Amino acid sequence: MKTRRNALAALVVMLGVGSIAGFGPSAPAGATAGVDPADFTNPQPNPYFPLQPGSVAILRGSEDGERLLNKTRITSSTKVILGVRTTVVSDVLYADGMLQEKTTDWYAPDNSGNVWYFGERTAVYNRSGKVVSKEGSWQAGVKGAVAGMIMPANPGPTDAYRQEFFKGHAEDQAWIVARHQVARVPFRRVGEVVRSYEWTRLEPGVVSLKLYGPGLGIIREKDVAGGDELLELVKVEHR
Question: Among 48, 4, 39, 52, which residue's Cα sits nearest to residue 239?
Fold first, then answer.
């Protein structure tokens, strides 16, 4: 677990990021009270977190001197959780050409276009290809785990929200700090970018900066405190 701190992390905490306990004012009413399937009867797509089956996003980068390759595939499979039909997303990470982590995530947009995160099944592998950890796996409604929001319908500065919650295992949070940004990644120049800081209370010294592009999702993620991971979008496929 990364626990190193630097000046930026301290600044973020002073600004209140580290103290945000749950959803910000832009989140739907009742968000902390649980999920109502009636809110998902006519799901609306969110351009900043697209869930079009068959899409594959490929990101490349590095961490601790290793070359990273991340493939995120939106599958045509679904899983019903708490009465909501979620989309199954496969996320696979390679380090220096070897499988490092494989995750299955469950997401669903609601009738307003907010995208909710209903859990994940994750496995970390060693260099021999054996699973060494499933820590961080969770499913909303199981053992007290609660669904969180992964992207608001209309993201903007000061939006703050809990992305997932399974106490002691999965506690990611996000704070959007800018919109209408422009960024250049290997894939191409992207406009109308949303920028957010994301972190977890389980690793209090680690802060990641993420950029989301319309129609693309994550186009860059970079540790700005407590680590040196960098991933950037290089290719989008439609299968």
Answer: 52
Distances (CA, A) of 222 to 9, 14, 228, 238: 14, 21, 7, 25
Tell which residue, 141, 91, 87, has the closest CA to residue 116.
87
Given a contact cutoff of 8 angstroms between Cβ atoms, the answer to whether 63 and 229 are in contact is: yes
Q: Are 85 and 40 in contact (CB under 8 A)?
A: yes
Distance from C-alpha of 42 to C-alpha of 40, rounded to nearest angstrom: 6
- Residue scoring higher pLDDT (57 or 2): 57
Task: Give the model's pLDDT for residue 159.
Answer: 97
pLDDT in tens, 143-172: 999 999 999 999 999 999 999 999 999 999
Q: Averaged over 186-198, what is the pLDDT?
A: 98
Question: Exposure pattern of 213-235 as b/e (b: 16+ CB <10 Å)?
Answer: beebbbbbbbbbbbbebbbbbbe
Contact 233, 219 (CB under 8 A): yes
